[in-house]
Specification:
Elements: H1 4-56, E1 76-81, H2 91-106, E2 111-116, H3 118-126, E3 131-135, H4 144-159, E4 165-175, E5 178-187, H5 208-286
Helix pairs in contact: 1-5, 4-5
Length: about 290
């Protein structure tokens, strides 16, 4: 059994860790509230602009815009969203495994990676994957400018013919306790399979083709902004849950150590009493 000093030291250390995890949980909760608010504001617009494009795409000539043309898939670009840091449960591990499976389906030699977040970049770089671009250390200052920057870089690579398709892999925020691993075709723009075609005959001013040309770059930027917000909110939710669990586990460990400390202290007192009684009896017998 450990001595009393060792147990007291362990209890003090765990209490310090518990204070840290409790503070990290509160910080993550505050960030989650802000990110969730931004995400919920962006979702309706992103879905609406996506719906408008889905209604227009079947009725236009795809050769009018280079981002609409469907190519033979020879080279695939994967955009993978992870966090820069850990302490968020299985958030990074799950999305990396999910991306790993998607890349293996296409083929490692036919894939290039654009990693948004340090964890994904480090994982795939160490394992010899072709990481051509990465963006890290920006999550705390996340703004719409990042969506514009990333969209511009990714679409330019597509226009330059580096990829025939671009697939995005990220954690979509569902609720505080869970996230949905999502794989989505970013480019080329195609009609989603579960989307019904709108046969209503609208009048467009300017022409339908001009509307599509205007909407395509805006749609890509808005979708990138949604990916960033969804991933960040899911990360904060995972971190908050992990820190809450760590705080609870620290409390359980403190309770067990306190019980062990009380037992050790009681045993020490009992031994001291026995020594005093034994000494008194020995003196009594000698007198």
């Amino acid at each position: 059994m450990a001595n009393l000093k060792d147990i007291r030291t362990r209890i003090a250390s765990i209490k310090n860790i518990q204070q840290v995890t409790k503070a990290m949980k509160m910080v993550a909760a505050a960030k989650l509230r802000r990110s969730q608010s931004n995400m919920e504001q962006a979702r309706p617009y992103a879905r609406r602009i996506n719906g408008v494009l889905n209604d227009l795409l079947p009725n236009i000539d795809r050769s009018l815009h280079p981002l609409l043309g469907v190519r033979n898939f020879k080279k695939t670009g994967f955009v993978i969203f992870t966090a820069d840091k850990g302490l968020c449960g299985s958030f990074n591990t799950n999305v990396i495994k999910f991306a790993h499976q998607a890349i293996d389906q296409v083929g490692k030699d036919k894939s290039e990676l654009i990693c948004i977040g340090r964890k994904g970049r480090d994982y795939f770089t160490k394992r010899g994957y072709n990481v051509v671009e990465s963006h890290v250390e920006f999550w705390n200052d996340l703004n719409f400018g990042h969506a514009i920057q990333f969209t511009s870089s990714i679409t330019q690579r597509y226009l330059d013919g580096e990829y025939d398709q671009i697939i995005v892999v990220f954690n979509e925020f569902k609720n505080v306790a869970s996230q949905n691993l999502t794989r989505q075709l970013y480019l080329p723009l195609v009609l989603e399979e579960d989307e019904a075609v709108d046969i209503t005959d609208y009048l467009f001013e300017p022409s339908k083709e001009e509307v599509v040309k205007s909407l395509v770059p805006r749609h890509l930027t808005v979708q990138m902004w949604r990916f960033l917000l969804e991933s960040y909110a899911a990360n904060m939710a995972a971190q908050m849950t992990a820190m809450e669990n760590a705080t609870i586990n620290a409390g359980d460990m403190i309770s067990r150590l306190q019980l062990e400390y009380n037992k050790a202290r009681q045993a020490s007192i009992t031994n001291e009493i026995l020594e005093i009684v034994s000494g008194a009896e020995a003196l009594k017998e000698n007198s």
